Amino acid sequence: MASEIRIPKLGMSAQEVTLTEWMFGDGEQVEKGDVIYTVETDKTTSEIEAQASGIIHPTGVEGEVYKVGAVVGTID
Question: Rounded to two decimals, what is the model's pTM?
Fold first, then answer.
């Protein structure tokens, strides 16, 4: 069963973030706890860790703005 990669809630006021960089490409192996992408709000840049181990399939586009909770990929 694939695990969804979602944009997390960062702070009290951030409702949207910019996905700035993926650290892994489609089909690469990731381990739980690996930093898989970075996001930027108007106040900070944050590293987001994998919540599961497996093969990553990013669907979110670098430079695009996403709402908190949006699905930006999966880990199989």
Answer: 0.92
